[in-house]
Amino acid sequence: MGNSLEGKVAIVTAGANGIGEGSAFSLAELRADIVIGDIDQTNGERVCERIRGLGRRAEFVAADMMKLEDARALVRTAVDRLGAVDILVNNAGGVRPRPFVDQNESNWQRVIDLNLMSMLGASHEAAKVMRDGGAVVNVASTEALRAAPGFSIYAACKAAMSQFTKTLALELAPRGIRVNCIAPDLIETPGLAPHMPTDPEGIDLRNRHVPLGRMASIAEAGSVVAFLASPASSWVTGVTIPVDGGITAAGGWHFDTNHQWRLAS
Question: Are the CB atoms for 160 and 116 separated by under 8 Å?
């Protein structure tokens, strides 16, 4: 079975950079037309120009995905300008790590709004008009699958995203709409870059905790999103796929300086 998305219209939230940009471009490479919703107009328009360079239609919509009215406007724009909605990529999210006891209600509500409510709003609006046979791809995190200090609310949101994926997959299955989720880690995004080591020793230590021994590009993450949106994954729905170079599978195992496996003590 082929993987062409010719004639399909995809919405990508937070598509102006990072995994969203990689997803939008990967979908366009499969010949989908793209609508990007983001608060970053400069980079959003830049990504649209890249996509138009592939001969695909692309529209940018200024949208704060934490606001339901912006989610409605984003979906309405896709229908009005490009004629349909076939694919939704829920990529909006982010966090600044902080111990739970050091947070207040305002802090955790923002994390919930950005990482969970944004997905619910976009999914609700898109599912109502999505053509049968469509696809939803949610972008969670490996924090959905493991514990990480400082990420309590974020991890809860991403775990909820993974569980929501399963349930929505069942509800939309009669329409042939598939719903899947990816759990990425160590992707070379602008948001992650400031937190990554730049010295050789730090880079080596980080890479020894990744079975594949490196970070991934946004294109690599985007290609998995595009696969899950394409006919090539027509028998896949309701799953969360780690996109993390084997970090989740390793479960604490890592390489020592002699490249021998060791279990973290």
Answer: yes
Q: Verify whether residue 154 is a known catalytic residue.
A: yes
**Catalytic residue of the set 25, 151, 154, 164:** 154
CA distance to 3, 79, 191, 227, per residue, from 48 (Å): 22, 17, 20, 20
What ranges in the chain are assigned the alpha helix state H? 18-29, 41-52, 68-77, 105-112, 118-129, 152-172, 200-208, 218-229, 247-250
Q: Please name the amino acid found at residue 70.
A: D
pLDDT, one tens digit per residue, over 243-255 is 999 999 999 899 9
pTM: 0.96
| Bridge partners, residue 38, by sequence | 62
State pLDDT tens for residues 144-191. Answer: 999 999 999 999 999 999 999 999 999 999 999 999 999 999 999 998
Complete domains list, the chain, with CATH: 9-189+216-246 (3.40.50.720)
